[in-house]
Amino acid sequence: MNSETLLIEADRLVAAGQTGRAVSIVATAAEQGDVDALFRLASWNLTGGPVPRDLRQAREILRRAVAIGHVDAALLEIALTANGSGSPTSWHAARTLLAVAARSDPVAAQHMALLDAMRLTADGHPAAEPASARLATQPEIRHFPALLTREECAHLANAANDLLLPAGVVDPRTGRAITHPVRTSDAAVIGPMRESLVVRAINQRLATITATDIAQGEALTILRYRPGQQFRPHFDAIGNARNQRTKTVLIYLNEGFAGGETHFPKLGVTIRPKAGDAVSFTNTLADDTTDPQSLHAGLPVVQGVKWLATRWIRKRPFDAWTGPETQA
Question: Does residue 148 share a domain with residue 288?
Fold first, then answer.
């Protein structure tokens, strides 16, 4: 049985509820050196299904796949090394792995070129504080012109392309996923398995401009708005959250569209998107309750397509694999 047939059969068994058999055939193939089976087994150990999540085990399996020459495994190992999944966080080690991968993989080489164009410290932090202007005091709203280059913006949009789905929310009455009643865009989440070293550097830049730890940030969310789509007036703070969303950063990834402004109706502040610009704002009062002045909206797109990246930042650092509301 070749790798493709084996993985199709494993998927069929998982769908049929025969997870034990699925794991057995993949694990056996992995032991025999099947690189695609190794990558699948590592992925299962990361996601926690159909086997229990084991980040260290995933890293060990992934290393075997990389040694055999699996390109996607190499990129995944780089991401996990940088964000500290299954091992201590190490920007230096991740960059070293990327340099090795870039010798033979054009995707890794592109990532390396983007990193080389950034002004970074040895640990991946911005070498200088980005310039900003204050647009409002309560809540504090700051505008960061040209925070990202156009190449970095394109990288984020491209990273989301194969993940985009209509924005959804869980209906509290039925527990089923339904269309988001407030946000009508398509959305993609760049989680720890997809956090390339370029995305990691950008996330660190967002932590720097908000004076927060990178581990306080939720996974970067990429949003695509087509004509007529919008994000109706809403608050980003969450009622009864254990670990409140205290800050938000929006990054405008493109131009060439009409509409789509970010509007704060209670403040009379409207921000016209410009590619590479970012806006940060606080969501809460001193007691962590929602600041009523933070009400904001993404106005409807009239023409063209708008791309936006959003980073919601929590009050305290959290484990990216268990989520911001999980208590230690």
Answer: yes
pTM of the model: 0.94
CA-to-CA distance for 39 and 45, rounded, in angstroms? Answer: 10
DSSP annotation of 214: G
Q: Both 30 and 157 in a single domain? A: no
Q: Do residues 162 and 18 both lie within one domain?
A: no
Query: Tokens at residue 147, please?
Result: 């925070």
User: Is 217 contained in some domain?
Assistant: yes
Q: Are residues 216 and 299 in the same domain?
A: yes
Cβ neighbors of 16 (< 8 A, separation 6 or more) are none
Give tens-digit pLDDT for 25-49.
Answer: 999 999 999 999 999 999 999 999 9
Query: Tokens in use for 218?
Result: 């939720």
The reply to whether omega before 88 is within 30° of 0 (cis) is no
Listing DSSP states for 153-195 in one string gives HHHHHHHHTTT-EE-EEE-TTT--EEE-SSB-SEEEEE-TTT-
Total of domains in the chain = 2
181-239 per-position pLDDT tens digit: 777 789 999 999 999 999 999 999 999 999 999 999 999 999 999 999 999 999 999 98
- 225 with 310, same domain: the answer is yes
Query: What is the 8-class DSSP label of residue 219?
Result: P
Q: What is the average per-residue pLDDT within 241-255?
A: 97
Helix (H, G, I), strand (E, B) or coil at 221: strand
